[in-house]
C-alpha cells in the first residue's frame, strides 16, 4: 500500500505540487510548492511538450529532496465531461454495472474512447424509492494516456487520476458540518460546489478561470506589465474592482489625461473580468434553488489562487446573498513541516529559485492537489486497468496454486483437487451470474417502457415547431443575462428571433454578445442596431439594443429543460488528441 504520493496539477502557467499521505482524512502535508510551467508545455490540460516539462519537474522534485515515485494527477480540461445521474440504491460493487448498462443514456456521444468514473453525491427518495445520486466523470482516454507517457519521462508511476472539481470538495466534505457554497477560482476553471450536511448536492464547472484576467492585464500596455508572473502580483496588490488608477505627473497635461483614461479603461476591463466569476456563482446558486424549489441557507467559502486577488472577498461579501466565511485550515489539512506550521497555514515557496512565484502561496490554492491525494475519483486508463487485472489474476492464480498443492498433499488425490478447484470456479461464476441478473431485469423493463412510449413520441414529433423552444429560451435569458440588462420584447417567426434589450449603461457589442455565451438555444447572433435615449430633465441615458439570432437544433425534455448534445471532436495527433466538450459538466 502506497503511504505517500506526489500530487500534481499542471496549469498553463503554474504547476502545483504537494507531497501528502495517501487516502488519509485530515491528510498530513509534508511539502507543497509551485513552479512556472515551461512555456507552451500545457494546453487545455494536455501536456504538449513532455520532454521540457518532465525535465523541469525532475529538477523541482530533486531540489526539494522528494524521492517518492507514485503520483496522482489532477486534471483541469474542457474535454472532461461530467453528469449528475440518479440510479437505484445498490451496493458499491453493483454501481458500475448499472452505469455501464445505461451509459449511452447518460452521455449522448460515443464513449468508447472515454474512461468513466464516478463519485457519490447523496441518497434521495424519488417516488417513494431510495435512489443514489452520482456525479459521473467521462475523461478522454488520450488525455489519461498523455499523462502516463509524461510520468514515464519524469521517472514517476501513475497511481490514479482526479479532476479539478473533486479534490477540494471531498476535502471540505470531511471537515464542514454546515451547509456551504464553495467557489473555487482556479487558473483555467471556476468550480461552484454546493454542500449540504457534508455531502455534495450540486456542482458546476465552467472553463473560465482567473487566467483570463491575467491575460487582460498583459493586453493593456498602459499598465506596463508583459509577464504572467508580474500580472499575478499586480492583481494581488491592486484592487481593480473598487479602486481607481492613478498615473504619474506629466508635463504634458493632454498626454496625462490620455494615460489616465487608458488606465481607467484597463481597470474597468479587469474588474468586469473578475465580476464574471461572481455571475457564475450567482447563476449556479439560483439554478440550484430553482431545482430544489427552496432558498439555500449556508455560508460561502472562496478557495483557489483567484480568491487571493485584491477586492475579491469584498465583492462576494457584498454581491452574493449569502454570508462569506474564512476557512480554518487546521480542520482541513495537517501541515507537518515545521516551516509550514510556523507560517500559520502558509505553504512557503522558495523565492530564490528560478521560475517560482515571488509571492507566498497560501494553502487556499493547494486544496485541489491535497484533496486529490485523499479522495481521488480513481480514473485509470484502460491499459492500466488491464495491467492491474492481469496482476490480480496472477496473484489469484498463485494463491490457487499454493492452495491446490496443500490440498493435494493432504488428500494425496490430484483428481479430487482438480474437482474442488473446478467446483469453486463454477460456484463463483454462478454466483456472479446471479448477482448480475438484476441488470437484465432492469434492461427488459426499460426496453418495454420505451416500446410503449414510441407511439406517443412519434405523435409528439409530428407536432414539433421551433417555437417550442421559446419558454426554455426565456429561462436561459433569465439565467444568463446580467441584472442590469432587461429584455423589452421578443419577436419570432419560427426561425429568426429578434430580442429588444434595454440597459442603463453602455455595453460594447462584443461584451453584449459575450453575455449570450450561455444562451445555447440561439446561434448566428448579430446586433443590427443600438441606440441611446437621453432624458432631457434628468440627464439619464438608456441604451437600446436589437439582437437577432436563429434557433439552434435542440430537444426539450419532459421537464421543459433543454437537453443538449455534446459532440466530440478529434485531431489526428499521436496521443494528445483533444476530445469532447467540457461544458457538459453541468448545464450552465
What does this structure look like?
Helices cover 38% and strands 26% of the residues. With 588 residues, it is of the alpha+beta class. It has a six-stranded mixed sheet with strand order 10-6-1-2-3-16, sandwiched between helices. Helix 12 packs antiparallel against helix 13 (414-435). The chain is globular, with a radius of gyration of 27 Å.
**Tell me, what's the shape?**
globular
- Share of β-strand residues: 25-35%
Q: Widest sheet: strand order?
A: 10-6-1-2-3-16
- CATH third-tier fold name of the largest domain: Nucleotidyltransferase, domain 5
Region (Disordered): 558-588
Pfam family, one: PilM_2
Protein name: Type IV pilus assembly protein PilM
Biased composition (Acidic residues): 571-588
Topology:
Blueprint: E1 4-10, E2 14-21, E3 28-36, E4 42-43, E5 46-47, H1 50-63, E6 70-75, E7 81-88, H2 92-101, H3 103-106, E8 114-126, E9 129-140, H4 141-153, E10 157-163, H5 167-173, E11 180-185, E12 190-196, E13 199-206, H6 211-218, H7 228-237, H8 253-292, E14 299-303, H9 312-319, E15 324-325, E16 334-335, H10 338-342, E17 346-347, E18 361-362, H11 367-374, H12 382-411, H13 414-435, H14 437-462, H15 470-480, E19 485-492, E20 496-503, H16 509-515, E21 522-534, E22 541-551, E23 555-556, E24 562-563
Helix pairs in contact: 1-4, 5-11, 6-7, 6-8, 12-13
